[in-house]
Design brief:
This protein has two domains: about 10-105 and about 195-225, D-Maltodextrin-Binding Protein, domain 2 (3-Layer(aba) Sandwich); about 105-190, D-Maltodextrin-Binding Protein, domain 2, CATH 3.40.190. Helix content is about 30%, strand content about 25%. It is built from six helices and eleven strands. It has helices spanning about 20-30, 60-65, 75-85, 135-140, 175-180, 205-225, and strands spanning about 10-15, 40-45, 50-55, 70-75, 95-100, 105-110, 125-130, 150, 165-170, 185-190, 195-200. The strands form two sheets. A six-stranded mixed sheet has the order 2-3-1-4-11-5. It is elongated, with a radius of gyration of 19 Å. The model has no long low-confidence stretch (mean pLDDT about 95). It binds phosphoribosyl ATP and zinc ion.
Length: about 230
């Protein structure tokens, strides 16, 4: 099903690290809305805009399938999804309109503290726990290195101690989680922040005009922050 609604649909994370900043940004763009806890959709009061609140992992596909018009999501989730959909021959295109400067983190390789580590090639054939096997695979392929995937979508940092994996590849912001689990960050493989994306298919004129207005305001909001 394609998105034929006249109202602009924007998907944001319902509850998580990007939610507050995403909601705040939409408010700063002049969109007035009230979020109710158990509601999937919030209708803006002053503009033809609907805000869809979902799991962050669902946002890239909603945009790539053209179900929603815009989405705010971490580049890490976006690119992992893109690689996965390309491998599965599913629609994987989108337009990245603007990196937003929040939700900053890095995707890093980490190994047990007491282990030596000189280069990523040492991981050849090793078991690596991660939620991002495709970003990791792309990075290691650049070193002609392959790995055995231990796919975990939570508790990645406990995998080495639990004897499930030799190393991990996980998101890091302060590094406290790695430290608490006796791991050391050895290589940053990807840097991420939240980004605003749009569906690939061109917009009808009225929607495009609304997006242009929002983008002008967004540039103002971002430059005021600097
Ligand atoms: O429920 P839903 O699926 O929507 O949310 P989620 O639990 O999958 O995602 P959420 O809310 O945790 O993260 C959303 C996005 O925030 C991520 O995809 C990143 O783009 C961004 N982000 C920024 C982070 C972090 N910083 C971060 N530190 N996402 C996760 N972490 C985790 C990391 O996985 C590790 O467990 O925080 C821990 C490390 O933090 P430090 O400070 O100890 O290094
Ligand atoms: Zn998620």
């Amino acid at each position: 099903m394609t998105n034929d609604s006249n109202r602009l649909r924007i998907a944001i994370q319902k509850s998580g690290r990007l939610s507050r900043d995403s909601e705040k940004l939409l408010s700063q763009l002049g969109i007035r809305f009230v979020l109710r806890d158990n509601r999937l959709i919030a209708h803006a009061e002053n503009l033809p805009i609907d805000i869809l609140r979902v799991r962050d992992d669902d946002i890239p596909a909603l945009v790539m399938d053209g179900i929603v018009d815009l989405g705010i999501v971490g580049q890490n989730v976006l690119e992992e999804c893109e690689l996965e959909r390309q491998a599965d021959s599913l629609p994987a295109s989108y337009r990245e309109l603007q990196a937003l400067g929040f939700g900053k983190c890095r995707l890093s390789l980490a190994v047990p503290e007491d282990e030596s580590f000189a280069s990523a090639t040492e991981l050849n054939g090793k078991i690596i726990a991660t939620s991002y096997p495709r970003l990791l695979g792309r990075y290691l392929a650049g070193f002609n290195t392959s790995f055995r995937n231990c796919q975990l979508n939570g508790s990645v940092e406990v995998a080495p101690r639990a004897g499930l994996a030799d190393a991990i590849c996980d998101l890091v912001s302060t590094g406290a989680t790695l430290e608490a689990n006796g791991l050391k960050e050895v290589e940053v493989i990807y840097r991420s922040q939240a980004t605003l994306i749009a569906r690939e298919r061109p917009f009808e004129p009225a929607k495009q005009q609304l997006i242009d207005t929002l983008m002008t305001r967004l540039k103002g909001v971002l430059s005021a922050r600097e």
